[in-house]
Amino acid sequence: MSGIAVDNRLRGLDLNLLVTLDMLLTEQNVTRAAQRLHYSQPSVSVQLAKLRDVFDDPLLLPGPRGMRPTKRAEQLREPLREALVALERAVAPPYAFDPKRATETWRLAATDYAESTIVLPALRRLRPAAPNSRLAVVEMVPPRFEKQAEQGEIDLAFHTTEDAPENMRRRVLFAERYVLVGRADHPRLKRRPTVAQFCKLEQAIVSPDGGGFHAVTDEALRAVGLARRVVLSVPHFLFLVSAVANSDLVAMAPLRLVQGNPALRVTEPPIDVPGYEMCMLWHERAHRDPAHQWLREHIAASV
């Protein structure tokens, strides 16, 4: 088992004795030390006797103006003070995070869809709120991001709730639905198409795994005995949008990605297709970190 070897003398040592010794070395007077520790003088005298047994040294001897530390006590003074200060820092409440002064570097794992719908809106507010911080957006690789978060390689990941790892903390950011899109002047989208017309249109889809021609829309169509014409499969949503805007192809696309785009015509699809939830994911190791908590709240408030 790895770790720091513990001296047997420490196992039975009361931490309060070391606090008392530190105060005695500072005041060099039992009465004043007792007052500052809010102890009675006899109680401090009892603790001093125990300390003498622990260190096998008188530690403090009577002097003309109180007590004089022995040579052993003088050797203890600095390392004891440093140890107690370090211990105070270790058990202190979490620091208050100040975004204006923060110099954090945050790493977010996101697809191009999450970049556009989550990271970009958050970025507009992040720079003024935390001007000295940095943000790195890295490629979302679903099989890897849980391990990356565990090892501290990423701070947050954005993924669908349905496929999110059970062992990661999560917060749902929004619900998304699919709409039918084509170029702004597409002749077949002047009005909402029927299901039969929809199935005849040449369509494009996003296949995150690469090269697939089947998606949730096809499952919905198959349930009613229909199929559509998928002629283009691409790995990214942003390329899908460009392809549709510059051709006669149409696509089922997430509403948040395409709404307000003047190059596109957006219409309701003629068949109900299940949407999805987008969530923010992080590892337990970062859950209580004040900087991480601030970042999560900032992103949630931005989308």
Structure write-up:
It comes from Trinickia dabaoshanensis. This is LysR family transcriptional regulator. It is built from twelve helices and twelve strands. By secondary structure, the chain is α/β, with parallel strands linked by helices. The chain folds into three domains: 8-91, Orthogonal Bundle (Arc Repressor Mutant, subunit A), CATH 1.10.10; 105-174 and 278-302, Periplasmic binding protein-like II (D-Maltodextrin-Binding Protein, domain 2, 3-Layer(aba) Sandwich); 178-274, Periplasmic binding protein-like II (D-Maltodextrin-Binding Protein, domain 2, 3-Layer(aba) Sandwich), CATH 3.40.190.10. Mean pLDDT is 91; it is low at 1-6.
SSE order? HHHHEEHEHEHEEEHEHEHEHEEH
- Give the distance, in angstroms, between the N- and C-terminal Cα atoms: 46 Å
Describe the strand arrangement of the main beta sheet, using strand numbers.
4-3-5-12-6
Tell me the fraction of residues in β-strands, as a range.
15-25%
Q: What count of structural domains?
A: 3
Q: CATH superfamily membership of the largest domain, which one?
A: Periplasmic binding protein-like II
Question: Helical amount among residues, as a percent range?
Answer: 40-55%
Mean pLDDT: 91
Determine the structural class based on helices, strands and strand pairing.
Answer: alpha/beta
Number of helices: 12
Low-pLDDT runs of 5+ residues are 1-6
Q: What composes the largest sheet?
A: 5 strands, mixed
Assign the CATH topology of the largest domain. Answer: D-Maltodextrin-Binding Protein, domain 2
User: How would the global form be characterised?
Assistant: rod-shaped
Give the class-level CATH name of the largest domain: Alpha Beta
Keywords: DNA-binding, Transcription, Transcription regulation
Family: Belongs to the LysR transcriptional regulatory family.
InterPro entries: LysR-type_TF, LysR_HTH_N, LysR_subst-bd, WH-like_DNA-bd_sf, WH_DNA-bd_sf
Protein name: LysR family transcriptional regulator
